[in-house]
Amino acid sequence: MSDLLRNGVFPLPATLPAECHCLDLSGSHTPSELLQRIGTALGFPEWYDANFDALFDCLIDAANIDCLALTGLEAFAAAQAEAFSTLHLVLAAVCDVRGELGQPVCFYLAGLSEGRTHAGG
Question: Are strands 21-24 and 67-71 parallel, antiparallel or unpaired?
Fold first, then answer.
């Protein structure tokens, strides 16, 4: 695992590790649209209901994802601050649980300020 791949949620770096899967979420205007696009891109199961609880559950079970960059979220973060904050909290909780399970995951989040990083447990 490269130095950039660590368990937690971090602002998007200038250069992503080659191992990192990147989702461009530009143009997502509502939380449900954002969550639906994530679920579709990652091939979540049919029961995925495009809500934050289901996102948490699917990311806990997604053993094939160890690094995920969510790009194009700057406008969403500004327009949907509460939903963006919830997204950050859900990703942080995923890091905590997966860290405890010995399955660390790293999320890079466009629109996240340096002071809001979360190093998972």
Answer: parallel
* CA–CA separation, 3 and 90 (whole Å): 23
- The tally of domains found in the chain comes to 1
Distance between CA atoms of residues 17 and 25, nearest Å: 19
In whole angstroms, how far apart are CA 36 and each of 40, 47, 93? Answer: 6, 12, 20
Over 50: is that where the pLDDT of 2 sits?
no
Is residue 1 in a domain? no
Domain that holds residue 43: 8-119
How does pLDDT run across 59-101, given as a tens digit for each residue?
Answer: 999 888 999 999 999 999 999 999 999 999 999 999 999 999 9
Pick the closest to residue 91 from 43, 59, 54 (CA basis). Answer: 59
